[in-house]
Each structure stands twice: as C-alpha cells, then as structure tokens.
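Quick one:
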Amino acid sequence: MARIAPRTSVAPERLKTLLPSLKPTVYNDPSTSKNPNNIRTIAWNPLGTYIATGCVDKTLRVWNAEKPNVRQTTELKGHTASIEKVAFNPVKELELCSVSSDGVVRFWDVKTKQVLNEVKGLGETFTLAWAPRGEYVVVGNKDDKLFVISPTQSTPVSSHQQPVQTNSITFCWSGQRIFASTGDGKTRILTFPEFEPAYQFSYKEGPDAELKLTGHTSSCIAVELHPYNRYLATGGTDSLIALWETTEWNCLRTATKMAGPVRSLSFSWDGLYIAGGSDEGTGLEIFNSETGEHLCTYKTSTPSPVVTWAPNRYALAYADSGSLKVIGASTGGK
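Output:
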C-alpha cells in the first residue's frame, strides 16, 4: 500500500513557536453530545486521509481529513453502548475495528459501511491494538482478560487472563511483543501470541523474575512505541511521561509538565515529538522526545484526554469541547 511521502522534519525551535499559532480545523457533528468527555477515542487511517471518532453516546463516525463537514462523513451504526476504542487496520486503507463496552468488537469496511466481522460476549471491553501486519487484534476488558481476535473469525482465537489490572496495550513493530500498562504503575513486556513474560531475571524466581518497567508511582495508563523503535513512552495518573530506551529498557528521561493524569500519548510521524492528553487542564502538551524538553502548550477550551498525531505529517487530532479538532489538517502543501 502506497504511503504519502513524509515531509521534512521541523526543528524543535521552529515547532515551539509555530504550533501554538495555528488555528484548528473543527469537525462539528451537530447530532452528538457536546459533553467535553463525549469523544472517547480518535484514530487516523494509515494514509492520514481519514479520522475515526468513537463516542460515549454510541456515535461512530469516520471523517475525511480535508472535509470537516458532517455531511461528508460516514456514520457506522450498531453498537449499543459507549465506543471505547477505534483503530484502523495498519495495512488496509479503510478497514476499521471498533470496541464497545457492550462487549462487541466489530470490523467495518468504511467505504460500504458493511460489518465484515463481529465478535460478541467479551465483557466490558475498552482497549484495542492491531498487530502490525493486520492479521489480529488484541482486545482487553475490565476484568483484565485479553482476547486475540481475527478479522475473519466470529469467536476469539485465544484468551488470556492477566494477573494485574491492565489498562492499555500496544504491539512492537515485529508483532512478537506486546506492551501492557498496568494499575500498579508498571509496564509489562509480553510475548505474542503466548502472553508470557518476554524477559526474566535469572537470579529471581516466580513472578518476581519478570522484567517490568517501573516508572510511575500510581497507575500507568498510556503506552506508545516510537515509530522507529527508539523509545517506549508510558504515561500515568502521576502526571508523568516516561521515555524508555528499547535495548536495555532503562528509563532515559521523564516529562513532568502534564496538568493531570496522562490519558493518551502519541509520537509524531518522525518520532521527534510526543504529545500528551489529559482529562485535567486546558491544553495539549508537546515535548521533544530526544531531550524530554517541554516545547509548548497548545491551548484548548476544555481538557483534551485524547490526542493523536497523523501517521505521515504534522497534523494533530484531539478532542475539545465535545468535538474533533485537528491542527494542521491539510494533507497537501509544504
């Protein structure tokens, strides 16, 4: 699948003055609730041309990034409870997976609005990650059970009960590891598809032998991998962002300017910058991932817990005042 050619990276000194001056494009949906917390999840497709939003009021909508008018969107109907997570297949332009607290996972063809597959009875599901080649998703529920699901099978491939509260998951780029943030402030590194600890200390025994990334004093919520595998970023309810190098798994630096719990993290396409979203404060915080330096705060009207960079340019999608907004929305130009 062809990708839009990435642009040249922007230097930190330029970004910190440019970004706060940009006006956002507002993608207004008059039919949805304007509760500031209505949008639960935002996802770009692999080409950065479409954006999916999932809401507490059960609205699942796909927007054309260049056409913010709601009449030019696709609404996907069927979930009976809050939509907790959406994500596009990383190797298909318009195949979307949605996870709802109704316990149903759906795979959609966005072009035709057709449900390609549906898996039911999974409990109160809320987290989702695609394997990098698009052959599986891993879905988690609030009973800390992880399910491996195929886009073409109506029952889970396997299920794995976790021994600790598991908040979010992401794959490594090889598809052989999963990173799971946990309620005890740690991040687990598990093999896939076995879900066994990937690294263990030879001089320890039992559960204590497992290597865990210990970087937060309270629950670790968000976990995100650098696009070129340089760092793993974790965010917690302690308002910290920790950046880990991916060879020895040492914590290299922490970012401390978040106003509240770190609900989402996203690296820019080139990995130079990381954005954090929180359900406290009124701004998006942008950091230099190479130094941990806080570059700027992009002011918002309400707290913005959901934030995500486009996969191929400096466009930042976020939730504000109950609407989707994007800074630098255009897919063309310099």
